[in-house]
Design goal:
Elements (H helix, E strand, L loop, with lengths): L12 H9 L7 E3 L14 E5 L4 E5 L24 H19 L2
Parallel strand pairs: 1-2
Antiparallel strand pairs: 2-3
């Protein structure tokens, strides 16, 4: 559900101050405000968005305007699907790839 048009988009005021103080080619702007919406003034800046454990660097482009900063900093790490069948498939793929690499 979107925010009321009367209120406007949410952008953390501290984040706006940091953007005004820094040049676009400077270091990453650290932020914990994942709920902040990306505005046109943010295009070209590098943000370090906190995902709960570490900071993930996000360079803002024009296509990102209107989205939230948290959308580009995933909070869960996908390792892989497990099980015997998956392990067998990966081993077959690795064996098939080795002879091709040694032929060169």
């Amino acid at each position: 559900m979107s925010r009321s048009l009367k209120k406007g988009p949410f952008v953390d005021p501290k984040l706006l101050v940091k953007i005004q103080r820094q040049k676009s080619d400077g270091p990453a702007i650290k932020t914990w405000s994942r709920a902040s919406e990306i505005s046109p003034e943010m295009v070209g800046y590098l943000f370090a968005v906190h995902n709960g454990k570490t900071f993930i660097e996000v360079r803002v482009s024009e296509e990102m305007v209107g989205h939230r900063l948290g959308e580009f900093s995933p909070t869960r790490k996908f390792t892989r699907h497990g099980g015997k069948i998956q392990k067998e498939l990966e081993m077959k793929a690795a064996e098939a790839g080795k002879p091709a690499a040694t032929k060169k």
